[in-house]
């Protein structure tokens, strides 16, 4: 039978959060953030990723023309996203309307990440493709020509239209 200490060390769990701060992050703010997260036994904090300036950034609808810095934090001490939000806002000095803390496993955040990955794939317009590789997928007879026109006219003859009478 395992001892309690061995059981606890084997069941070590981490808590992952995504921290979003709007507008400029200075080195002083980052230092205060790292110091504040030490309270929850911070395992890691990613470098801030900056989004382009947006008219109304996602998660910050009240702000306009702001850039958002996104960081992932991994903590070993249990805390809720709301508690962490309040604590960071008070101890670091970030205004409440410029801060968002969300669980990294939140379904909305996962869907957002998947959308970004899908959007990240490079789009190539069909007209820019010199070799026109997708030409095999399109059958010209299905959309153009005499055969298509004949089928369309036959279908129009089959359909019966009823018109309302005026009184």
Summarize the structure.
The protein has five helices and five strands, in the order αβαβββαβαα. It has 167 residues and is of the alpha+beta class.
Structural features:
single chain, 167 residues, alpha+beta, Alpha-Beta Plaits, 2 domains, 5-stranded antiparallel β-sheet, 5 strands, 34% helix, 16% strand
Describe the structure.
There is one protein chain. With 167 residues, the protein is an alpha+beta fold. It has two domains: 4-120, Ribosomal protein S6/Translation elongation factor EF1B (Alpha-Beta Plaits), CATH 3.30.70.60; 126-158, no CATH class. Helices cover 34% and strands 16% of the residues. Strands 1, 2, 3, 4 and 5 form a five-stranded antiparallel sheet that branches. The longest helix is centred in the last third of the chain and has 14 residues, at 107-120. It is elongated and about 80 Å long. It starts with a helix and ends in a 9-residue tail after the last helix.
């Amino acid at each position: 039978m395992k001892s309690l200490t061995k059981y606890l060390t084997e069941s070590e769990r981490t808590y992952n959060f995504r921290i979003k701060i709007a507008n400029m992050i200075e080195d002083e703010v980052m230092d205060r953030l790292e110091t504040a997260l030490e309270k929850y036994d911070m395992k890691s904090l990613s470098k801030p990723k900056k989004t382009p300036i947006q008219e109304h950034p996602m998660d910050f609808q009240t702000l306009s023309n702001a850039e958002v810095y996104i960081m992932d934090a991994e903590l070993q001490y249990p805390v809720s996203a709301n508690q962490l939000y309040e604590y960071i806002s008070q101890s670091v000095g970030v205004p409440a309307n410029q801060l968002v803390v969300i669980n990294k496993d939140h379904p909305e955040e996962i869907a957002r990440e998947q959308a970004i990955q899908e959007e990240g794939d490079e789009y190539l317009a069909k007209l820019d493709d010199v070799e026109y590789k997708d030409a095999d997928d399109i059958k010209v007879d299905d959309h153009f020509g005499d055969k298509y026109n004949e089928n369309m006219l036959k279908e129009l003859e089959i359909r019966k239209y009823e018109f309302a009478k005026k009184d």
